[in-house]
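Thread: Newbie trying to understand structure tokens

Hi all, I'm a second-year student working on a class project, and my supervisor (Dr. K.) asked me to get a predicted structure for one chain before our next meeting. I've only ever worked with sequences, so writing a 3D structure as a token string is new to me. If someone could post the tokens and maybe explain what I'm looking at, I'd be very grateful. Here's the chain:
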Amino acid sequence: MTLSFDPASPSFRCGHFIGGAFEAAEPVLSLHRPSDGVEFAGCPVADADVVDKAVRVARRAQKDSGWGTCRPRERTNALLRWADLIEQHALELAQLEAVPSTRLIGQLIAGDIAVTAEQIRFFAELADKEGGEVVPTAGNQFGLIVTEPYGVVAAITPWNFPLSMAGWKMAPALAAGNAVVLKPSEMTPFATLRMAELSVEAGIPAGLVNVVLGDGPVTGNALTGHPNIAKVSFTGSTGAGSAIMANVARTGIKPMTLELGGKSPQVVFADADLALAADCIARSILFNGGQACVAGSRVIAHESIADELSDRLIKLMAQPGPGLGWEEETTYSPCISARQRARVHSLVQAAIEEGAEVLTGARDMDHPGYFYQPTLLTNVSQDNTAVREEVFGPVLTLQTFGTEDEAFALADHPTYGLAAGVYTRDVSRALKSLHRIEAGTIWINRYGRSRDHILPTGGYKSSGIGKDLGRDAYHANRRSKSVLIDL
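---
Reply by user tm_fold:
Sure, no problem. This is what the structure looks like when written as tokens:
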């Protein structure tokens, strides 16, 4: 059976999901399919009144349902049923995501849907296994640290991995006993809406999962600045994260988890397995068209192997061709929009004007969709635009080094510290790199996350604050209270 389908066949509903019910709304924003540029649907923009309704409904549902105070295993069981339903509706969800987004139908079925269900199951199982503690105090006293949910968590997810990012945000918040109001990207909201509907079918009380559609300046600001939002969780650009911090500061004080931009280095030492390194590097920048915050976009290679590595990379980067996201054989993603592709090209041109040499790519692909050719640039300094700026497209830079100190100096970025890759057969050098590179995640002889959701993810510097995934994400959705009792 083929996974390919007619992109006009899914139902792209325009509206919000509040209190367990879909609420139709008038479209404001026109949406185009990135694979072929065809306009196919519209998206509403929730104003402050709609956002306020969603927050009020969520707050009431969290209190009235007893979700935060029930036997934790009840939350576990409901979340496990939700994960099962997501897998059962995998094809429907994948179709709703493949048309408006950069995610491909084959990759969605093989990866994103299953990963989303796994993430929900991971956090579901923490609900009745993570708690407070009894602490040492004087003999005539009893000291406790107890934890409780915040109340209503605001979540904002990006367009590059809509379903799995929704799982990142909602699963730990719900497992910890909170309600959620989520704003997906206005470009890719449809699978998230259906995912929310399935939560009610799974037995999660209506009103605990709410989805409001809209843009950042209107809907996002209203949501993050709402006085009854107790915590904010956001994944997106560093600029947008800074704006959210400023908005929260204007309206109050609340904790935030921010996973932001990256400009991640991949350091290849002379003793590395070059076939492995080239394969990992190429996949890291070709996957989703380079539109991932952890994309390993800066290659830093020892001067003795740089030419061979670049030859391997050029061959690998020449392989993918454009295709339609709803056709099973497609393996390469477009840019999300014409505007994003133009931005990628403008940054590449700026880098060339500053002296960068093009080894391959640096132009649009001949296709109706928003495809950009995989690009490899060399002869770039640390202050070159392509090294300094997050391109968020299929663009690699290649720099060379002679000594370890030079390698680690090049790996350091003044702004970002999200992830890094290191390729070497020397265990001592690999371990040394863990301390020399400032990044929230270091991958050795691989690049990219596994499906071990116990490993948290998050950045250093302007790549974010707090962690998603792992126990850290669960604990970030509960607040602690100290209790001291005289006996």
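A couple of things are worth pointing out once you decode it. The chain has two domains: 15-260+463-486, 265-452. The radius of gyration is 23 Å. Feel free to ask follow-ups in this thread.
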